[in-house]
Design goal:
The protein is α/β, with parallel strands linked by helices. The protein has helices spanning 15-18, 32-43, 61-71, 86-94, 101-118, 141-158, 165-175, 178-181, 190-205; strands at residues 8-13, 50-53, 79-83, 123-127, 161-163. The protein contains nine helices and five strands; from the N terminus they run βααβαβααβαβααα.
Length: 206
């Protein structure tokens, strides 16, 4: 198990991680970090785990590069979870401001390398970005797939655990319509947040 007494767990990412945290006096937000933190506390109260959510809505990999020292390394996490990438695709389609797969991989490699150098004992959990085909976002798939592949390749070098969320949500959408899991193809609703939390708990506690 990755968790131990008094361990600090940091959740990093974009709006899917933020999920109402920023500016709302709700430090864990109301998404998958909230679900996972409370479920883990209930299951392992004796561990006295410390949870920190540093997700910021709209972030791309380049934003994590810029704030990594203050918002991640400064916390000295024992366990670090990262979910980043959908905005690296989204900005291409809504702002004509693309991030290539090569840039995404270079940015991601930057933060992973800095983490390994500064915190060699930190357990890194990488969650792949995902997309459900709701709201006319099917055209995003080709761009995002290249970033998912980059994320998977980086996980082989750096991650202690990898969670293939795009695959999990594709399977979930066979069982229940997309609207059960997401409001717009990107942001999960309650069931989608719970699915991410469940998969995260599996790797943290196995």
């Amino acid at each position: 198990m990755m968790l131990f007494k008094n361990a600090t767990v940091v959740f990093q990412g974009d709006s899917i991680t933020d999920c109402g945290r920023s500016g709302n006096n709700a430090p864990m937000g109301n998404g998958y970090p909230y679900f996972a933190a409370h479920m883990l506390t209930a299951k392992y109260p004796e561990l006295n785990l410390n949870f920190i959510n540093e997700g910021i809505s709209g972030n791309r990999t380049k934003d994590l590069v810029a704030r990594w020292d203050t918002d991640t390394l400064a916390h000295k996490p024992d366990v670090l979870t990262i979910l980043i990438g959908i905005n690296d695709t989204w900005r291409k389609f809504d702002s004509n401001d693309p991030t290539t797969a090569e840039e995404y991989e270079a940015n991601y490699r930057n933060i992973l390398t800095r983490t390994r150098d500064a915190l060699p004992d930190c357990k890194i959990v990488m969650l792949e970005p995902f997309l459900m085909h709701l709201g006319g976002k099917e055209a995003w798939r080709e761009d995002l797939n290249a970033k998912i592949l980059a994320c998977r390749n980086l996980s082989k070098e750096f991650a202690d655990a990898f969670i293939p969320l795009d695959g999990y949500f594709a399977a979930a959408c066979v069982q229940q319509p997309e609207e059960v899991w997401t409001r717009d193809g990107v942001h999960p609703v309650g069931a989608g947040c719970a699915l991410i939390a469940e998969k995260l708990m599996e790797v943290l506690t196995k």
